[in-house]
Sequence to fold (486 residues):
Amino acid sequence: MRPQVIIYLLGVLLSLLGVLMLVPFGVSVLYRGPDQAALLVSALVTGGAGGAMWFFTRKQSGAVKRKESFIVVALAWLLASAFGALPYLLAGSFANPIDAYFEAMSGFTTAGASVMTDIEVHPQGILFWRSLTQWIGGLGIVALFLGILPMVRVGGLGASALYEDEVTGPKADRVTPRIQETAGAALRSYLVFSLLGTTMLVVAGMSVFDASTHTLSAIGTGGFSIRNASMGYYDSPAIHWIVSIMMVLGGVNFGLFYFVWKGKATLMLRSTEFRVYLGMVVAGSLLVATDLLLHGRVTSVFEAVTKGTFQFVSLHTGTGLVIDDYDQWPGFSKTLMLFAMFVGASAGSTCGALKVVRLVMLAKYAHRQVYSAFHPRVILPLKMNGKVIPEEIVRETVSFFVVYEAVLVVSTLAVSAMGLDFITAFTGSLATMAIVGPGFGGVGPTLNYSAIPDPAKVVFMFNMFVGRLEFWTVLILLRSAFWKER
Fold:
C-alpha cells in the first residue's frame, strides 16, 4: 500500500469539492445572504487542504491498486462529509458538530435524513449547498471525479476499481471500453436531466431557486427540500408529476441512458431490471392510489393517483420527498411502501437499498433451489437479459442479502437500547441504511432526526455510510487481515 497515492487522489477529490462549494457561495452573493463568508471560507479551507495534499504527492506514479481503491473510496465519503459540514458550522446552522456531520453525510449519501428543524429560516446559500450535496453524492463522489477529471493519473485498472467500489449494484456496468468514459457518459445524462427538470419546474410555476434545489434533490434521489412541508408546500399537480418523473429517472440505471443517446433505446427496454422496476412503480402506485380511495383519504381518482404515485415512487427510489403525512395512511399502503423502501430501485442508479436486480436474482435463486430439490441431477444456470449469471455474482447477491438483514437487525437493536421505540428504531434503521431518509413513527414524514439522541445519530450515520457503499467496501476495511496483507 502506498500512502502517497491515497493522499494524492483524496487531495484531488477535496480540491474538486472546494471548487463546487463556490457554487452555493455564488448563490449567496446573488441573494446577498449572511452566509457568504461561511461558504467562501469553507471553499477555501476545503480546496486549500486538497491542494496541499495534491501538491506534496503530485509526483506519485503507477495505477491504483485494489487495496488502495478501497481506502480511497471509504475515506473520500468520510472526508467529503467532514468538509461538507463546515458551511453548516460556520454559518451557525448547527451548533452541534454531530448534527452538522449528520446533515452532510445524509446529503452526500442521498439519505435525506435531516436534523434541520426550521428549514425555511436558513439562507439560500446554505440551502443550495444542502441540495447540491445530494446531487454530488447521487452520481457518486468518485464517479463524479472520474467523469470530470479523466486526466487524473489512476490507471485503467485503478479507475475500474475506484468506480466499482463505489457504484451501487452487484456489478458496475461498463457501457464504454474505458471506465472513465462510462463515468463521463453517466455524468452527461445526469446534467441533461438536471437542466430539463429545472426548466420544467420553472414553467410549472416554481421560482428558479425552488426549481433548481428540488431538481438536485429529485434527480439525486436525496429528498432534502427547502420547505418545511416538503413537496406538500406546492399545491400544484403539475409540479408533483414533474418531480415524480424525475425521481423515476433517478431510479434507473444510468448506464442504460447511454444506449438511448446512441439511438439504441431497444437495448434499454430489453433490460430485465428496467422492466421489473417500471412494473413495480406502476403496480405499487396504483395499489396505493386504490387503497387511498377505498379508505376515503382523497376526494378524487386524480388526487389518489397523484399522491399515490408520488409517495410510492419517492420511497421506492429512496428519495424521501413528502407530499402528505403518509404515516396517517391506511396500513396496506404503509406496508407496501415499507417493502418498496427495503427493495429500492435499480443498480447503477442514484438509489440505495437492496436493488431490483438483486431481488430478481434472489427470486431466480429460490426457484432454482426448489427445482433442484425435485431434480437434484439437473444443473440449472441462472439467466438474466439472455445471459448466464456467473455463480460469483449469485453468491455475492445472497451474501449481500444476509449482511443487509444482519446490519438492519443489529442497528434496530442498538438504537432501541438507546430509548427509541420499535417503529422508530426499525424504520429509522431501514431508512438510513436504504438511503431513504424519512421512516415512520418518530422519524416519520412530519418529523425528522433532530430529537434522536446523539449516540443513535452516530449509528444512523454509520448506516448511511455502509448503505451507500453497499457494505463490502467498508466491511473489508474492518477486517484486521486487510491491514496485515501487503
Q: What stands out?
A: The chain has 23 helices and two strands. Confidence is low (pLDDT under 50) at residues 155-159. The first helix runs from residue 3 to 20. The longest strand covers residues 383-384.
